[in-house]
Description:
The chain has helices spanning 2-29, 36-47, 97-100, 152-159, 282-294, 388-406, 413-424; strands at 51-53, 57-60, 65-75, 84-95, 105-113, 116-121, 161-177, 182-197, 202-212, 219-229, 233-242, 246-255, 264-278, 305-318, 321-331, 334-343, 348-358, 366-377, 382-386. With 425 residues, the protein is α+β, with helices and mostly antiparallel strands. α6 runs antiparallel to α7. It is elongated.
Amino acid sequence: MLGFIKSIFYICLVLLGLLIAGVIFLVFFVNPNQYKAEIINNIQNSTGRSLVIAGKMQWTFYPMLGIKVNDLKLGNPPSFPKTDFLSVKDADISVAFRPLLNGQIQVDKIILNYLKLDLIKNASGQVNWQNHVSTSNHRVETQNVASPQKDNNNFFKLALLTIGEVDLKDSSIVYEDEKQNKKIILDQLQLKSKNIALNKFFPIETSFMIKTNKISKPISITLNANMLVNMDKLRLQGLDAKTNQYHWAGWLEINFLKKDLAALNGYLSFSGKNGAFQGIDLYYYSNLADAMINQTEPTRQDTHQTPFDSIQGTLDIQDGIVNNHDLFIHAQRINASGQGTVNLVNQALDYQISLQRLTNGTQVKSRGPVIPLLVTGTISDPKIRPDWTSITVTEIKSQIKEKIEKHKDQIPESIQRGLQNLLRN
């Protein structure tokens, strides 16, 4: 019996030695560069995309089996511009060898330096991140995309994938929608994460500059959160993000089973200092109300923005519809509160803002009646108008109040009580 155990032990040692010898032979005697042409041809045949590996490829052996690639460029599908879909200056990827024997993919690290990714949606609705070539006959595939469904086999394979570390440095992602004339650029992108796996929260830390053809100045963003990914959703929990003037906190979730912005859910609190609220000039409407009350011509032009000292509120997002009931803006000689909904799916606005003017001086007081503003239309083209009916009623009530106070000795008490009840309604 003892001899049998020894035999098994020696056999295991021999197998382990052969395994180690095989890995050593692979790393030290097989040059990955000799397979460049074969890799490039396979990519071309299966995707229709050109692949260029200008730099050297080399194995890494310690502490994990991996490969380093320099100056890699992957082209667009044939129907798109002859530019790079993806380029990477330095890529370093390593995989634990032993779990591979059990069908598990345990990635130790993915380090990418100077990655550039160009995502394009052309005028006909085709996108360059999908495969447009059939592997059987090289014909262009149609872009009819079925609704997302679970694939238990693929899900099982993904569930066996774990990534120990991801480090993305000095990278950029560009998204261009030619049909809607929209361009979004994430520049100076840094991203770090670790212990990545499906159905488990893992930390993510990122920073980038966002630029679009719809805004005049780039926005700097830093974000920290715990992320959960499964086949149905992506969730950011404990989200903490900062932009140029704003601070956001809460959670966000994207439902993969729904399309576009209807997939968005979450709850966020936000605050900001020394910025500008875009889309509405509260000073313009303050001046307009004064002109109406005093029966004079308005003297201010609409700048479509309101510089503020501070802003705060919360956003409750359900299926792409944002509900807000506690917006508060403090600006020079102005306080404003707001409530209503913003439908991100159809871009519709249904919002009300109450504008209170303030006096100058050390003792700040309310000046004049509250001015109610109705905000409708769309996010890109908001329609803002004072609620003249409410303003007129408020002004009439104010004048009646002054008359009662001025002539209360001449008005019977029963009539005063009746007028007071009328003013409260």
